[in-house]
Design a protein that fits this description.
globular, 7% strand, Transferase(Phosphotransferase), domain 1, three-stranded antiparallel β-sheet
Length: 1041
């Protein structure tokens, strides 16, 4: 055996491996082979069990041996092959993670916790925040700092390949985000910030507290004996926060007042026509709307459109009050004119801090002493325009808001927000999706994840009548395990977890964003035969996969099929989890169908109710409903044969035309006799795919011998006549096509426009009579109908419905045509249908796939409207950001000369906070390529976005404002920012400086002025495209002029 002295004497090595990096690692599978012999009698595949143990422990020696011991001591009959993952997971959950502090014997996890939490408090705060960062991001780059080394020494994290990550899943589960938050809360919440403030000689205001940190600190300090340093730190924090809140509110209020003045100036001539004293009328408007631009504009528009006679002198205030009460405040949740109020409400309630926002707003309503702490919640209420600062006092911004969002409203919303229960202290219920006798289905968000991802949870009661909870739980767990085999299929939601709590069994699964098929069926529009065939093929391909796993859905109906928003594919949701549990199955069967009314389930009297048959029957019934528009409960059953009668005609509904091939398949799917019904999804798919095969035209051989000449001569003679007829018909058709495709512009008078629209409608109708699937003619007729719906008010709804049907048919006839889906969405938008957004998203998807060479000038204004939809009507996230950028690039290939399009691209990047990309677009794509005299507004936009980069951008921003003033010396914004910048730069490079408010400028602090600095510029002529311009009636940011 070598001794230490032998190693020291070795000239080839040292005992310390000087100069060689050392990285410790846990046990690897090859190193723990001796442990396998101890597991041999407890698992069919001990090697697989040991590998799964290492997955949980990361090879940590103590935990690895402890898990092996727990497994050996567990009262089980051995782990079967293939069950290693589930068995080890159950063991870890029950014997280590659940109530871990009481089960941690001997101490191991508690030792790690003590080692970390016994550090001095300032250092502990940094240590916990560093670990929190690793938890949230998964890993961070290793830099051998004191904090990182301390975490490594605790054993909680490990360094591998130059990064730090949590050592193993057990540590991640125990020392999770909640543990970090509790540890941080035990500290003085502001210790680190106060130390830094004191170290700066009490001058560094950036170290003072603001927002929630200040509120938490004041709450923590209440009833505590504080040092002078603590008191001064908290008092200074409060004073600075109040000053910043006051300055921010004043800046936003000033910008809003400027915008209101512009609106009132714009409407002044028209207000003068309806009132002898327009100034008094304007005062009445301001007394209600305050300095809120949106409400001011809405009130002006309502006054002008609804004042049929001149407003009498002295009645201006009463006139405005009556209009406010009847058109804004009363029924504000449903009136079209009150849309700004609903938008404000929705923004407030959709915020993840909804409860905190409502509580803060309630305090302001009650005139309670609200700390102006510059919190995110307070900034949001100010930015929304809901509250304002008046001489240091926070109050509701105007009378309309005070009447609508009053004490009763906020109390009701608070009750709703507080009633959101939390399952397992983790899953916060957002809303109930479905309620059944034993099952509740919820949409939840996961509080433990930084992204607060959304999931679906199904809650199943265990305390059912005539059932034993333990047996029911066991059967449900077994059913869950069976359904886990479906994970991995792209059109079935992933099952993520299951657990039991308070005599309820829970299943957590992936949430699929989209619309249920039930909603599509509600439109009452009949599906075309090809669409029904495609639907059945898509559904049965999923069922074929499910049935191959020896499973069935068992609960198939339109509400359990979801059209995924992302790609439009069908997703199979809500499998019949309760099947196989006798007590529940018996009760469900007894309540299912006790009459002869058809449904999506096999009738009770049917001989064969095998699981696969149930799914196929439901598929057939949905196919019939899609084709006929008739729900199963409105169909009847032949009492003699037991067959469903679905091909019939009644007085107001002719029999739906359907090919014999599809009719035969549907009838066989829902056949009463099991002997004549399909046995498998594969059989149905074969028949359906055969329907999609084009029928070959049979080739007939010409006659032989001299008869060829005879026939040839006859054919030639006939052809001469036929060609003449054909030529004449072709000429007629060509004229119809030209008339159908004629452009209609609003440069014409209203009468001429209606006449032109009717001509287009008539020509297109003639084409459609001969070619029902002519997508172009359907689109043109639909556009003509949209225009006519605007001018023929008596039949507007009927005409609009006709347009909707044409666009629906066009989108089905040519399902890769983005124009068809856009116009379908436009018609839905004008009918106030929420589904318009789905149609617009489909159009966007198709445009992004389409080659630019296939596009024409007519596509450009449509792309402009879709860009407006993405920017204005959608919350900004990564997917929307990428889609919008891609659509801008597509639009630029269609119209590369549009400077306004390029400008809007830059403005969008400012909204997305990609400031450097925005600067590049303003500078290199516009200012470097266009006539300077036209670009003072672009220079201002470039200057402001450069300010948003911070102090480093001040010189470039100053240069931009100077350039704007050279072009237009009257540009007030440029002049104001130039003056402030010169003052800031004169103070030197000290940063931050309280005397330089521009250092704290953010996109949010610009408030209402943001729209002035970065407007959405018009991209096409409303007169040239009057159909598209119809959408502008409801859009607050017009995209045409």
């Amino acid at each position: 055996m070598a001794t230490p002295s032998d190693l020291i004497a070795d000239k080839e090595r040292t005992p310390f491996n000087l100069g060689c990096a050392i990285e410790l690692h846990g046990f690897r599978l090859a190193e723990v082979q001796p442990l396998i012999s101890g597991l041999a009698g407890h698992a069919e595949q001990p090697q697989a069990v040991l590998a799964e143990i290492l997955n949980w422990t990361g090879g940590q020696p103590f935990l690895t041996q402890k898990l092996c011991r727990l497994l050996v001591d567990a009262p089980n009959h051995g782990i079967a092959a293939g069950e290693e993952v589930a068995a080890v997971k159950t063991l870890v959950q029950s014997q280590i993670l659940t109530n871990w502090e009481s089960q941690d014997n001997p101490d191991h996890l508690k030792t790690i916790s003590r080692r970390i939490c016994e550090k001095d408090k300032p250092f502990l705060g940094r240590l916990l925040r560093l670990y929190q960062q690793i938890l949230q991001t998964g890993q961070i780059a290793a830099d051998d700092s004191r904090e990182q080394n301390e975490l490594r020494l605790s054993g909680l994290v490990v360094k591998q390949a130059g990064v730090l990550r949590v050592y193993n899943p057990i540590y991640r589960a125990v020392f999770n985000e909640q543990w970090v938050q509790e540890a941080l809360a035990a500290l003085r919440p502001y210790a680190e910030m106060m130390s830094a403030w004191l170290a700066s000689g009490r001058k560094d205001e950036s170290r003072l507290l603001r927002g929630r940190a200040l509120r938490d600190a004041l709450a923590w300090a209440e009833n505590k004996e504080l040092s002078d340093a603590d008191r001064q730190f908290l008092a200074s924090s409060q004073a600075v926060a109040e000053r910043i809140t006051r300055e921010t509110a004043e800046l936003l209020s000033q910008q809003a007042r400027t915008e209101v003045d512009k609106i009132l100036t714009r409407f002044a001539p028209e207000l003068g026509q309806i009132a002898s004293r327009p100034k008094v009328l304007i005062q009445a408007i301001q007394s209600w709307a305050g300095s809120q631009p949106g409400l001011t504009e809405q009130l002006c528009q309502l006054l002008i459109s609804e004042s049929e006679s001149r407003i009498p002198v002295g009645e201006e205030a009463g006139w405005v009050e009556h209009l406010v009460q009847t058109r804004l405040i009363q029924y504000w949740e449903t009136q079209i004119s009150a849309e700004p109020l609903r938008t404000l409400r929705d923004t407030l309630l959709a915020d993840e801090k909804c409860l905190e926002l409502l509580q803060l707003y309630q305090k302001i309503l009650r005139h309670e002493g609200v700390i102006a702490d510059d919190s995110a919640e307070l900034r949001l209420l100010i930015n929304l325009g809901l509250i304002e600062d008046e001489a240091g006092h926070l109050k509701v911004a105007n009378q309309i808001y005070a009447r609508v969002f009053d004490q009763n409203w906020v109390e009701q919303e608070l009750v709703t927000a507080r009633e959101r229960p939390v399952i397992r202290q983790r899953y916060e219920i957002m809303k109930k999706l479905r309620e059944e006798e034993f099952v509740q289905t919820y949409l939840v968000k996961d509080r433990d994840l930084p992204s607060q991802s959304q999931y679906v949870i199904r809650q199943i009661a265990l305390n059912i009548p005539d059932g034993t909870p333990a047996v029911t739980q066991s059967l449900l767990a077994s059913r869950f395990k069976e359904l886990e085999k479906l994970n991995g299929h792209g059109q079935i939601p992933k099952l993520l977890a299951s657990f039991t709590e308070n005599e309820k069994f829970y299943i957590v699964q992936e949430f699929i964003e989209g619309q249920n098929l039930k909603e599509e069926f509600r439109t009452n529009r009949l599906w075309s035969e090809p669409k029904v065939i495609d639907f059945l093929i898509d559904l049965l391909e999923i069922l074929e996969f499910v049935h191959r796993q020896d499973l069935s859905h068992l609960n198939l109906q339109p509400s359990n099929l979801r059209r995924r928003q992302q790609d439009g594919k069908l997703v199979l949701i809500d499998f019949g989890i309760l099947e196989g549990i006798p007590e529940l199955s018996d009760r469900l069967d007894s309540s299912e169908q006790m009459s002869d009314i058809p449904s999506y389930s096999l009738p009770t009297g049917t001989a064969d109710r095998a699981p696969f048959s149930q799914d196929l029957y439901a598929a057939g019934m949905m196919g019939i409903q899609a084709l006929t528009g008739i729900q199963p409960n409105y169909l009847t059953i032949d009492r003699k044969t037991g067959e469903i009668i679905w091909r019939f005609a009644i007085s107001d509904r002719p029999m739906v035309p359907v090919g014999e091939g599809l009719a035969s398949i549907l009838t066989k799917l829902v056949c009463h006799s099991s002997e004549r019904r399909y046995l498998s999804a594969t059989e149905v798919l074969e028949d359906l795919r055969a329907l999609k095969q084009p029928t070959p035209t049979p080739f007939r051989f010409a006659w032989l011998g001299d008869r060829r000449i005879l026939v040839g001569g006859l054919v030639g003679l006939l052809a001469l006549g036929t060609l003449g007829v054909w030529g004449y018909q072709r000429k007629i058709q060509s004229e119809q096509v030209a008339a159908c495709n004629a452009s209609i512009t609003s440069a014409q008078s209203d009468v001429e426009l209606v006449v032109a629209a009717n001509r287009v409608l008539e020509a297109c109708s003639q084409l459609i009579a001969n070619q029902p699937n002519d997508a172009q003619a359907l689109k043109q007729r639909g556009q003509a109908s949209l225009l006519l719906s605007k001018y023929e008010s008596a039949d507007a709804e009927k005409i609009l419905n006709r347009a909707l049907e044409d666009f629906q048919a066009a989108s089905e006839a040519q399902d890769d045509d983005p124009q068809a889906f856009f116009y379908l969405g436009l018609a839905q938008f004008l009918q106030n249908e929420a589904t318009y957004a789905d149609s617009y998203r489909k159009a966007i998807e198709l445009y992004l796939k389409q080659d630019a060479a296939r596009m024409s000038a007519a596509d450009f204004p449509i792309l402009a409207e879709l860009l407006s939809f993405l920017m204005v009507k959608n919350p900004l996230n990564q997917a929307v950001y990428e889609q919008t950028n891609a659509l801008f690039e597509k639009a630029q290939t269609v119209n590369p000369a549009s400077t306004n399009l390029v400008y809007n691209h830059g403005a969008f990047n400012v909204r997305a906070k990609n400031y450097r990309d925005a600067i590049y677009i303003f500078k290199d794509k516009i200012l470097a390529r266009t006539i300077p005299s036209q670009n003072d507004r672009v220079w201002v936009s470039k200057g402001v976005v450069t300010l948003l980069l911070g102090r480093t951008g001040f010189p470039d921003a100053l240069d931009a404002f100077k350039q704007a003033l050279e072009i237009n010396p009257d540009n007030a914004l440029a002049s104001n920012y130039k003056t402030q910048l010169e003052s800031c730069l004169a103070q030197g490079n000290a940063s931050p400086s309280p005397a330089c408010p521009l250092e704290t400028v953010t996109a949010e602090s610009l408030g209402k002025n943001f729209q002035t600095i970065f407007p959405i510029e018009p991209l096409y002529s409303c007169q040239e495209y009057p159909v598209l311009a119809m959408s502008e009636r409801k859009d607050y940011q017009p995209i045409c002029n």
